[in-house]
């Protein structure tokens, strides 16, 4: 009988290095430094270049990891919000987090375009978890009677994305639009 090797958990210092690299890269990309060199990112993270390349094979891998981390934080917030709040408030707060996520994506567009296949390819490959989170939150609202039963979760996702697009560089206005969208989806409001 052969033992199958157990998956190793990342060492805590390795995990700290990875998080520091992601934070340094995110900060640079958000500041518009789309052409920042890998050694500069490593330096800002307080690690050596070898450590950076142990975690990320190349620049595209680092960019994709920053993008995935943003998406994963958004997705992970859905069950946390659902556990802490009533369904409609959980959905509202998640939609507000989506506004921040969309703003980050927009600011990172020049960097995302440098990934093989461009930003559209990256967005396409990562949409399923976001769709799933929206479906769960919206379904909970419908079940609780907080939203009409004819509300399509994909329409809610399209609405919040549209809100982000309309608001442009004014995220506070996007948050106000979310309340308008949710008010229009309440029971007793006819489409």
Automatic annotation (TrEMBL):
The organism's place on the tree of life at top rank: Bacteria
Keywords: DNA-binding, Transcription, Transcription regulation
Record-annotated DNA-binding residue ranges: 37-56
Organism: Asaia krungthepensis NRIC 0535
Entry-linked PANTHER family: HTH-TYPE TRANSCRIPTIONAL REGULATOR BETI, HTH-TYPE TRANSCRIPTIONAL REGULATOR RUTR
Protein name per the record: TetR family transcriptional regulator
Annotated ranges, domain HTH tetR-type: 14-74
């Amino acid at each position: 009988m052969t033992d199958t090797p157990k998956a190793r958990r990342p060492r805590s210092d390795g995990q700290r290095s990875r998080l520091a690299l992601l934070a340094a890269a995110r900060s640079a990309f958000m500041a518009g430094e789309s052409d920042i060199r890998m050694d500069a990112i490593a330096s800002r993270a307080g690690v050596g270049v070898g450590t950076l390349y142990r975690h990320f094979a190349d620049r595209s891998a680092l960019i994709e990891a920053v993008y995935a981390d943003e998406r994963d934080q958004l997705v992970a917030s859905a069950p946390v919000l659902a556990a802490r709040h009533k369904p409609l408030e959980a959905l509202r707060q998640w939609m507000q987090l989506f506004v921040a996520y969309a703003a980050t994506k927009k600011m990172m567009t020049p960097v995302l375009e440098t990934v093989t296949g461009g930003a559209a390819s990256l967005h396409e490959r990562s949409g399923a978890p976001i769709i799933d989170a929206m479906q769960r939150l919206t379904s909970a609202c419908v079940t609780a009677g907080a939203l009409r039963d004819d509300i399509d979760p994909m329409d809610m996702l399209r609405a919040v994305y549209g809100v982000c697009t309309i608001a442009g560089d004014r995220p506070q206005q996007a948050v106000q639009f979310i309340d308008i969208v949710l008010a229009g989806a309440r029971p007793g409001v006819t489409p």
